[in-house]
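hiii, so i know i said id send this last week but things got crazy w the move. better late than never?? heres the sequnce for the chain we talked about at the cafe, plus the structure i predicted for it. fair warning i was half asleep when i ran it
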Amino acid sequence: MGVIHLDSIVRGAHLLPKFPSDAPVYREINYMNALDVYTSFYVNKFVDHHAFKIAF
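okay and structure toks below
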């Protein structure tokens, strides 16, 4: 974990969790607890034109 300063945040990101191949996805997982449940995420660089330009 680390601290990210608010003045360094440019915009929000669309995160997709890396689902484990050998474990089920439970209905109790939602947008409020997904960051605590999953350990790694993909960043969706195609969410819009500006995100694509900034990320890549």
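btw The CA atoms of residues 11 and 51 lie 8 Å apart. thought thatd interest u
miss u guys!!
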